[in-house]
Amino acid sequence: MEEFLARLNQPLLKRIISLLPGDEPIYLVGGAIRDALLNRPNYDLDFVTPGNAMKLARQIGNQLGAAYFPLDTHRNVARLMLKPDDPLVVPGGCLARIDFSSFQGMDLVSDLQGRDFTMNALAVEVHNLQTLVDPLNGAADLVSKRLRTCSPLSMLNDPVRILRAVRFSVDLELNIHAETLKHIRQAVGKLPEVSAERLRDELFRILLQAHPSTSLRILDKLNALEHILPEIGVLKNIQQSPPHVMDVWEHTMDSLVRLENLVDVLAAEYDPDKVANLTMGLLALRLGRYREYLMNHFKIALNPDRPHRGLIILAGLYHDAGKLKTQTVDEKGKIRFINHEQIGSKAVEKRGKALKLSNLEIERLVKIVNHHVRPSLLSHTEELPSRKAIYRFFRDTGIAGVDICLLSLADILATYGPTLPQERWSRHLEVVRMMLSAWWEDRTGSIYPRPIINGDELMEALSLSPSPTVGYLLDGIREAQVAGDVHSREEAISLARTLYQEY
């Protein structure tokens, strides 16, 4: 119990307890208790009270200087958020949320019995942390590595808990109880009734796991994936010709594993254990210089609620989603998937809209999937890409080109598997290095050259009216600048005249 209390004794919790009134019962419940028992870090705090939780949350928020958000006025639920640089927040700004809610039931026990899993149906009274309230033996389930629902109706009442069950089982290495599996199978058909927003949020929590592919495989076994990402489960048993060594489904799952590893190697602090093999060693040697750039790249989220890592994993999941509808066999028996990237980009756009992602997130997903094969095509020949080719790539993709480069590395590793020739890997790494160098070390010279003539000047010089043709000519001038073929206004006009005649 002393160790348990020590794990709960974090500065933020102590500060909140000091502000809470002492004349009414208030309980810390759920994940903070569970993770303290497991000796795991937890930055989410959930409090319940028989009183007015929203009023209490506002009072505490005012004293903490925290932002206040009413989450559910009917159920009396509110959330507080502290600024990442607040001294009460753990280093790195990891605090997720502080929630206050009124009892969802007659008393504390009925509130706990209405929760999802027994390991989350735990509570301590904030002014008496030594007494653990555990009406469903959740602590014993944790010791036994068992995931068990609080009620036979838990899944039917809230089918999104299916995703939570899978995530917890993978994250905490728990065995899902047989009765809970039965309840999941009974409720899986009700997943379409879950709101898109809640489904999206639970899905991204899975995508942000250390091993999302494991959870996705379990969801598929439970027949849940077809209700969440229907374009993915259908990729099973779609065969591919060499150099592919797996069908489309297995290739997709392996691509996710490779992508997870790549991000861990390149977008995190250097860890020698992660580059202990030749393949990862070459990766770190060639691209390690961009570690800080990549770490900053992943810090820039297109939506504050969804880290960028989850988005690129989702893109990786859909990169070959177009292969179901594009599979053909040529006269030599080779299996082809012509334009699968275009079909896949439409699929991920449709799914992004269904999940209520933001327009920026959907745009990024579409670009990644639509252009994911381009780095591999550029590295498939003996010649390295020209400056024009790199310019065109980033002209079409922008910052999404960085994500595409990372995905292409995972894609080629999953394509060849153990048959990957070292020279093929080395050549692809060099192409990606050239691209990242252009983006981060020579963007002005390689991608966005200084304009030497603008649209109005070009229209005047060539007696043109405003039209898309002007944009085409300006792009041709920029491409020639990057290639070193145009250096002056006169040369730009001369080139534009030639391009216009050929247009």
Write the layout of secondary structure elements.
Layout: H1 2-8, H2 11-19, E1 27-29, H3 31-37, E2 44-49, H4 53-64, E3 67-72, E4 77-81, E5 97-102, H5 108-113, E6 123-125, E7 128-133, H6 138-143, E8 146-147, H7 154-157, H8 161-171, E9 175-176, H9 178-187, H10 196-207, H11 212-221, H12 225-228, H13 230-233, H14 248-266, H15 278-287, H16 291-299, H17 308-318, E10 327-329, E11 335-337, H18 340-354, H19 359-370, H20 374-379, H21 387-397, H22 400-416, H23 422-441, H24 443-446, H25 455-462, H26 468-483, H27 489-502
Parallel strand pairs: 2-5, 8-9
Antiparallel strand pairs: 1-2, 1-6, 3-4, 4-5, 6-7, 10-11
What is the beta-strand fraction?
A: 5-15%
Q: Spans of 5+ residues with little confidence (pLDDT < 50)? A: none
Alpha-carbon distance between the termini?
Answer: 79 Å
Radius of gyration: 27 Å
Trace the largest sheet across and list its strands. 3-4-5-2-1-6-7
Structurally, the number of domains stands at 4
Instruction: Let me know the average pLDDT.
Output: 93
* DSSP strand tally: 11
* Fraction in helix: 40-55%
Task: Based on Cα principal axes, name the global outline.
Answer: globular
Strand-pairing-aware structural class? alpha+beta
SS summary, helix count: 27
The main sheet comes to: 7 strands, mixed
